[in-house]
Amino acid sequence: MCIHQKQLICFLIIVMFFLPGCIDKSKNEIFILSVEPAALTDKTYEDMSMPDNDAYDAEKEKGIKIWTSIGKRTRALSDIIGVDEPAILVNGHPITKKSIEHQKILSEEIPNVVSLKKSIISMVRMKVVQVEAIRKKVQPSQDKIDDYLKMNRDILENVPLGTESTIYYIEGLGMTKEEYLKELEESAYNIFQREALYDPIEESQKEKVWDEAEKRGVKVSVVSKEYYERYVNGLVRKAKIEILDPEIKDIFSDN
């Protein structure tokens, strides 16, 4: 994997994570993740070699074009009539057409990194957790939100290697850095509200997770992720998920 692809993955961690209706809950299975021991693993990139200067420059130029285009296309979504209408309802809470269209742009611009179908599944799963946190009136840690925003501010000011894509994206959006950080506040709230929901559950399972990781000879993070995905699977199975957008119905029509 080249440096350009590593930059894309690094940036996607920051931003993305921005059928007939599934009234029959058996249809929710399309949003269930496999949690077999071999399905979830930690990936490392220690074997990646750095490209030579010419290759790096070419990849950097490619990255500028891609992320500027993504920014411009994302900005243009606001001009589409009905873009803020729900495409999917999760227990009555919407995932908007704009959110889906943004993921579609990413899948078209960087198809080797982003799959639209997988992105939609991920969005639904995150929304299910979000709705559960709202239902339980969970409040996120303000300190964690502040630290997250500070980290992103530092990235925008210092632009460490692997984060240049953020700058190109913001330029494409036509935003200032301050405007972009303001947009991130809502994302930060959602991220840490979901985390706050699962934190006490994770804490109660800590000893069991460590024991299982030791027995299997895998990293604790691998087992912890499996436990989390099983928890989300349970929420998904109980959720009322309605797909309203015909295009999304077509994407999952083979399930």
Explain this structure to me?
By secondary structure, the protein is mostly helical. The longest helix is centred in the last third of the chain and has 28 residues, at 177-204. It has one domain (3-30, 48-85, 93-134, 141-251). Helix 4 crosses helix 9 and helix 8 crosses helix 9. The two termini are 31 Å apart. Helices cover 63% and strands 5% of the residues. It has helices at residues 3-15, 53-76, 97-109, 116-135, 142-158, 164-173, 177-204, 206-216, 220-238, 246-251, and strands spanning 86-90, 93-96, 241-243. The protein has a 3-stranded antiparallel beta sheet with strand order 2-1-3. It is globular, with a radius of gyration of 19 Å.
How many DSSP E strands?
3
Quaternary form: single chain
SSE arrangement, N to C: HHEEHHHHHHHEH
The share of residues in helices is: 55-70%
Mind describing the biggest β-sheet? 3 strands, antiparallel
